[in-house]
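Batch job 17 of 40 flagged for manual review because the log was empty.
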Amino acid sequence: MPGDTEAADAARRLRETRQRQRLTTMRWAATGLLVLMTGLFALAHAHLGSHPAWGYVRAFAEAAMVGAMADWFAVVALFRRPLGLPIWHTAIVPNKKDEIARSLGEFVESHFVTVDTIVARIRSFDTATRLSEWLVKPHNADKLGKLLTAATRQILASVDDKQIRAMLRTAITKRLQAVDLAGPVAGFGLDLMAEKRHHAWLDWALQATHEWLDSEGADATLGAAIDSVLDNRLLALLKGTATTRIRNGLKNLIDAAAKDPQHPLRLRFDDHIAHWLLQLETDPELGQHLRNFQAITLENPRLQAAFEGLWDELRTWLSDDLAHQNPALGRHAARIATEWGAGLTADAATRAWINDAMEAAAIPLIIDNRGKVAAFIQAQIDDWSKEEMTDRLELAVGRDLQFIRINGTLVGGLVGLILHLLVSATQRL
């Protein structure tokens, strides 16, 4: 995010400023010590004959000056030409910039970004245990809940509702269109048959037919049917009696089928349903009819509007919940995180599975990307100018190099003093 980037840049600039200040301080300290040794040498040389001790002082200061100058030359030669003189093999860092970039990349790739090294680090880190320990702490679970709440607020404030509705509608429609209903519908029907619950449909049909036969409309319908087959006037006189007998016969048939679970009508109904369900599973044409019906149903405008409305309902619920000081979304997330952490703490097998999965996932990533590490480092350094690279390295290690100058001054002085002691002792012998 822009704010985080600006804060990181400000922190980096502050860190570099402090590094420059410390580097400058150490430079002045090392140079000041050289100046001090030079003054001490001049003073000792001026008083050389007044007391034997001045000889020791001069030997110490003289060797310290040599050590200081040698180390100053060595330190400066790493980054630039001493005094601007074109001395051979100086300004090593800027002149060897490309080689340093390549060597550094290869070094990191060969010694740090290896399968064994990274997998060992992942294994020793024990991700699952650390995760479980982190989750069981209430304040961490609360952090997760607040983080989820804040993220949800940002999402709701930034998303395009129209686009989300369309995406949700399209996603649900495609998902449901991809479902093959033939098998599930057939399985559901067979389950209903096993429980004899499909007979409720037959009972309803029988009852509805019985009620129709008792209605006035049945007389006209049965009479019209008899008229269509009785074209003789004499036989037509029997229509009233035939209508009554047909109606009573049908009612008796319906009553018998309603009372007898093993009635042939019921058994015929069972055979028909079983045959249809079997066809639904095995007949491609019937399955295609079902898929066509499924596609037409899913394209229904009211159903499509209902799919879009799911986002509006979810958004309303989230907005109402997030308006509270302590949203339920955050509380539920914190509770789930705590429960999951506690369960993970007690489940060694799951922890081992998570750790193994982390290792297994890391191996191909390492293999695929370890060659890119050297190229990345080299490309990054290639983007720097010689001056920029020199400045960055000097900021990183320059302060320690100034300590080398100081140590060289003091060690050189001590070596000179020891040599002077040995020479003096030899001369007295």
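Reviewer: the log was empty due to a logging misconfiguration, but the result itself is present. The mean pLDDT is 83. Unflagging and moving on to job 18.
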